[in-house]
Design a protein that fits this description.
The protein is an all-alpha fold and 434 residues long. It is 82% helix and 0% strand.
């Protein structure tokens, strides 16, 4: 069934703001970490446990969310995740002990693992040739969410405190959940595949463990999963520790920190949009196009982040900010292209689960990142800890992307052949119904 352009814009807008506000809620903690440390009298290792706890819970929940999304209505499940976001955040806002606050922040990992259903649903509204742009828009919401968190903290923290900020972001989660529950419709799986989009009736294919198991025969998928294991480490580390790093290690005041991070966040968002768009364009020319863009983005991020962390402490903040912006621009090049590639090689009925496995592996890989940096920071300093973790993980990520680039064309052709077979099957059903 055809969907109007206006409704497509609506659903992209709703999920854009879901991700933006959810990321704002998730990232506020990194910007008020010093206040939380003071309130609960915590060291860096204890503070790192907040991020690690949430990541571990998210890792456990990813397979469950993926299985649910591939079997039931995705919009209703995303709405449920939004309600959970609101409740757990408000619980953290009123917690009075370290134990209760740790429990609240760890519980927030339940909704952190809800994104695969959004991306899967978008794949059924938009064809492969435009998915990179759509995912670029959605991924740009994440840094804009960080900017929103930055603005909330800058304006409100001194006036109402971090607890009331959490109450605000938690309340927004409940409101967005209501909008998704009543405003977003489910879409038939596979509807936007080129071979199926013009058919009036499509043969139904349900979630099947055998089909999921066949993913292991996709030779590009294993290196994609492995690069995900390493690729999320730098983001986790920077999201959680970089505000503290700028204040403590570089001696910037709060105004300078907010200006620098605001500029870097804007560059992240632009980079996601550009990376997704370039990936779509190159994919239209050759099947390795998306992952080539991903590999370039990861390699440049590795080089530029190493250079930025190595800049002398005496450098003018303006020049440091320019270096930080250039680095940030390339850091999300891979995001929309990896997700699009995942859906270029997997059947529609298992896409949420396939991406959930990717995110599960990422969460396992990064769950110890905040704690690891906290422990290393107590030994070698925060600058050295951030640099060491990011250098090793970015280099590993680049190597695995090289393998994925080599294997991906054959895996894409396997899916296209599978979709052609389903188109023939659906044509028979349509003829029989006529």
């Amino acid at each position: 069934m055809a969907v109007s352009s206006r409704y497509k814009i609506f659903i992209v807008g709703v999920f854009f703001f879901f991700i933006l506000l959810h990321q704002a809620d998730k990232l506020v903690i990194g910007q008020v970490l010093s206040d939380i440390q003071a309130d609960f009298d915590l060291n860096d290792a204890q503070s790192g446990s907040f991020g690690t706890g949430a990541l571990l819970v998210a890792a456990i929940c990813y397979p469950l969310w993926g299985w649910l999304y591939d079997r039931f209505a995705r919009p209703k499940l995303v709405a449920l995740a939004s309600f959970i976001w609101g409740i757990t955040t408000m619980f953290g806002a009123v917690a009075q002990t370290f134990g209760l606050f740790f429990l609240a922040r760890s519980s927030s990992g339940i909704d952190d693992s809800s994104y695969p259903g959004i991306y899967s649903l978008m794949a059924d509204y938009f064809p492969p040739k435009t998915r990179g742009k759509i995912y670029g828009i959605l991924q740009a919401a994440a840094p804009l969410g960080a900017a929103t968190a930055l603005l909330l903290v800058f304006i409100l923290n001194d006036r109402i405190g971090w607890r009331n900020i959490f109450l605000i972001t938690g309340g927004l989660g409940i409101l967005v959940g209501l909008l998704i529950f009543f405003g977003i419709r489910e879409r038939q799986r596979g509807q936007s595949e080129p071979e199926l989009e013009n058919l009036q009736q499509i043969a139904q294919h349900r979630f099947d463990w055998a089909v999921l198991g066949s993913l292991l025969r996709r030779r590009s998928l294993i290196p994609l999963y492995l690069q995900g294991f390493f690729g999320v480490f730098p983001f986790t580390v920077l999201n959680f520790w970089f505000f503290t790093y700028l204040e403590r290690e570089r001696g910037y005041d709060s105004g300078q920190v907010f200006a620098l991070m605001g500029a870097a966040i804007a560059a992240l968002g632009v980079g996601a949009l550009v990376g997704g768009g370039v990936g779509d364009r190159l994919f239209g020319r050759f099947r390795r196009g998306r992952l080539t863009v991903s590999m370039i983005g990861v390699t440049l991020s590795l080089i530029l982040l190493t250079l930025t962390l190595s800049l002398p402490l005496t450098i003018d903040p303006l020049f440091y900010g320019i270096s930080l912006m250039i680095t940030a621009f390339f850091m999300l090049f891979s995001g929309p292209n990896v997700i699009s590639t995942m859906y270029d090689i997997t059947a529609p009925e298992i896409r949420s689960t396939a991406l959930s496995v990717q995110y599960f592996i990422e969460s396992i890989g990064s769950a110890l990142a905040p704690l690891l940096v906290g422990v290393l920071s107590d030994q070698i300093g925060l600058t050295g800890a951030i640099g060491l973790v990011c250098l090793i993980t970015y280099a590993s990520c680049a190597l695995f992307l090289v393998l994925a680039v080599w294997f991906v064309p054959q895996d894409i052709e396997r899916l296209r052949e599978q979709m052609r077979e389903r188109a023939d099957e659906s044509a028979v059903l349509t003829g029989a119904a006529g």
